[in-house]
């Protein structure tokens, strides 16, 4: 089984993604690491613990991540209008009884990469601060980690925070640029792909009929996420950003990929923009792309198969 660590800001689609991973016979979840994004980091940790408790998987460790961006900005973009003020659909769940482990997310990531060199896949579902911190902590981390699969960016399409930026990259663009250029085996799944993968109102009704603790939990929290999509995108359904990214770890053949350098704009009105360059060879002057490591970027997706896998899970 593929060993995965999920770096997450739960988050309704994060909850879906975590459940897909827990249900997958192809994956072994080594741990969850938490980040700010949909909620602040303290709440992300609380939600991660709550999700694991709800489905009886408290054997999986949770390591709390950074509360601030890599450049120590404490003013964060928190998407409570998408996921509810508690991040889990305004359910006011009781506080979890379990606790995060003593290690920080970055230390846990480095430790697991050392323990299983070349074998750990990190599925990153929030801003990339913890991964950038792991790289800072151990510059050989990119060589020791097996793969990093990132829900982040918008490739040749508009962002979802603004026309330029997708939310996870916008959350910490400096961290994202460090990660995209670190030389690890990276696969990026962006909005150009995830906006094709919709869990419809009809799928939701099917889930409501389903006798499963996973489905029941998701149905309880999903309402605000559906409302937001109706309002913001005029669609009858929700985008499966984070589950699609876990599914890329389970079955990479459900997508096709291209390869090139990705850099992230860190300032100005295009802050958070992911710039993709697949030029084979660069001549002439030195540019911010010259000699940079390449990453894989998802370009097409078998959306019905991804939705089906999510529903089956
Ligand atoms: C990403 O941002 C968050 O709102 C979602 O959980 C997902 O990871 C989509 O842009
Ligand atoms: Ca997320």
Automatic annotation (TrEMBL):
CDD domains: nuc_hydro_CaPnhB. One of its GO terms (molecular function) is uridine nucleosidase activity. Residues 4-307 form the Inosine/uridine-preferring nucleoside hydrolase domain. InterPro entries: Inosine/uridine_hydrolase_dom, IUNH, Ribo_hydro-like. One of its GO terms (biological process) is ribonucleoside catabolic process. GO terms for cellular component: cytosol. It is found in: Cytoplasm. Coiled coil: none annotated. Its EC number is 3.2.2.3. Its main location: cytoplasm. It catalyses: uridine + H2O = D-ribose + uracil. The keyword Hydrolase applies. Keywords: Cytoplasm, Glycosidase, Hydrolase. It holds the Pfam family IU_nuc_hydro. PANTHER family: INOSINE-URIDINE PREFERRING NUCLEOSIDE HYDROLASE (PTHR12304), URIDINE NUCLEOSIDASE (PTHR12304:SF4). Involved in pyrimidine breakdown. Belongs to the IUNH family. This is uridine nucleosidase. It comes from Digitaria exilis.
């Amino acid at each position: 089984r593929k060993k995965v660590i999920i770096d997450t800001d739960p988050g309704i689609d994060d909850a879906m993604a975590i459940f897909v991973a827990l249900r997958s016979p192809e994956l072994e979840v080594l741990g969850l690491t938490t980040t700010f994004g949909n909620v602040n980091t303290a709440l992300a940790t609380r939600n991660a613990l709550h999700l694991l408790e709800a489905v009886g998987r408290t054997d999986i460790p949770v390591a709390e991540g950074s509360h601030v961006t890599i450049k120590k900005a404490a003013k964060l973009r928190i998407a409570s209008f998408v996921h509810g003020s508690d991040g889990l659909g305004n359910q006011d769940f009781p506080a979890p009884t379990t606790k995060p482990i003593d290690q920080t997310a970055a230390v846990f990531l480095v430790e697991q990469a050392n323990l299983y060199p070349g074998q750990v896949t990190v599925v990153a579902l929030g801003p990339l601060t913890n991964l950038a911190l792991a790289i800072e902590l151990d510059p050989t981390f990119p060589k020791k980690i097996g793969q990093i699969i990132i829900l982040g960016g918008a490739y040749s399409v508009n962002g979802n925070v603004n026309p330029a930026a997708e939310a996870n990259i916008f959350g910490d663009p400096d961290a994202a640029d460090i990660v995209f250029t670190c030389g690890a085996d990276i696969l990026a799944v962006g909005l150009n792909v995830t906006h094709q993968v919709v869990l419809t109102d009809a799928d939701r009704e099917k889930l409501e009929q389903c006798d499963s603790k996973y489905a029941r939990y998701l149905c309880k929290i999903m309402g605000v996420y559906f409302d937001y999509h109706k309002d913001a995108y005029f669609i009858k359904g929700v985008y499966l950003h984070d589950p699609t990214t876990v599914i890329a770890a389970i079955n990479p053949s459900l997508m096709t990929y291209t390869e090139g350098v990705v850099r992230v704009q860190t300032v100005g009105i295009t802050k958070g923009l992911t710039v993709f360059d697949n030029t084979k060879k660069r001549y002439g002057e030195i540019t911010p792309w010259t000699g940079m490591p390449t990453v894989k970027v998802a370009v097409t997706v078998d959306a019905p198969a991804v939705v089906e896998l999510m529903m089956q899970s």
